[in-house]
Amino acid sequence: MLHSFLKKEENRGDQMKTKVIILGISSIIVLCGCTQQMNQPSLEKLGMISVIAVDYVDDDTMKMTAIMPQPAAEAMKHTQIFSIETDMIHKGIVEISAQADKTVTLRQLRVVMFSEEFAKKGKMEEVVEYLYKDTEVRSNTFVAVVKDSAEELLTREYPDKQNTSVYINNLFQPRMYTYFSPFTTVHEFVYDQTNPLLDAITPYVELKNGLINIEGIAAFKDGDLSYVFTQQEGKSIQILRGQNNLSVLAVTLDKDSSEKEKVVLEFIKSKARIKSNHDLASPKIKISLEFEGTLSEYDGEKDLANKTELASLEKEISKKIEDDVRGFLQKCQELSIDPVGLFESYRMQYKGDWPSDLTDQLLAKAEFEIVAKTEVLSTGTLK
User: Fold this and answer.
1) CB contact at 8 A, 337 and 292
2) pLDDT surpassing 80 at residue 32
3) pTM for this structure?
4) What are the angstrom distances between the C-alpha of 344 and each of 186, 199, 215, 274, 357?
5) CA distance linking residue 112 with residue 144, whole number of Å
6) For the chain, which terminal residue's Cβ has fewer other Cβ atoms within 10 angstroms, N or C?
């Protein structure tokens, strides 16, 4: 009995010691957490870089321009601008922090723009990869190529825009009438660059009439900017990449040198199927395209209330789309650029690692069969 009693008391003592130890450890953790929180600067003391522009200086130096919103109501300007020359992004951020009156961070980075010269020199890939690996930078930060100076787009005044940062961020948000453009994030660019079946693309922007315009699609080959596709060619890219919704499709049908029909479709649903013969020696690809849309404008002689004439118009639109896509693919073959990923089915059947130059070889000798089908769902009050 006495032995059992002493044993119980001993166990109670051990339990009390354990509780005291746990309580002590918990107190230390709480105190450490408080200390860390005290060391973190408040939001009011942080400078949130929202947009960065990168320009080429020489092979070892780039010019980095950054803008930060000024949320204070008493601020004279809504945006702070900093510009420095550096050889590394992180080093540049440190130098900007030395100029700013706040601790600079990339947590709110929304857009990074590169000058065309910088992208052509093959420097863009390295910077984007750095941003991709930076834990502060969000993977859905957008990237783009600028025709001339990227710095000019950030430092220029936009009188009808209250805040340059908000203006540029909104510009790169996909909207109804900009579905044609492949708004490319840091994550998507890195993925495409490391994909042996695909060449990376980004929006190509230009300053026109005092505003930033998306003028085309910048296509990369082996890390270098290689070619800029037009907006119309950009639609072909999005269709073949599987874009299910297109905003507007404007088509001009040439009857002869003097007669033309103009058609505008809106609210388009599209579907693309790419099938292949899996023959590496003689690759053949069949592309089936389906479109459904509302006819919002028509300039021509057809009576669209007549089902026969409407069906004729649908066939003519389909033929025009086939010609446009075929012309786009021929240009891809000439440039040895595949921004679509045409040979994904070949890769699925291929055993072993996909050779880096096999995509180029297949693209050069591929034969394409393109079949499009267009259905006009409504013609409204058009005549």
Assistant:
1) no
2) no
3) 0.82
4) 22, 13, 29, 9, 14
5) 7
6) N
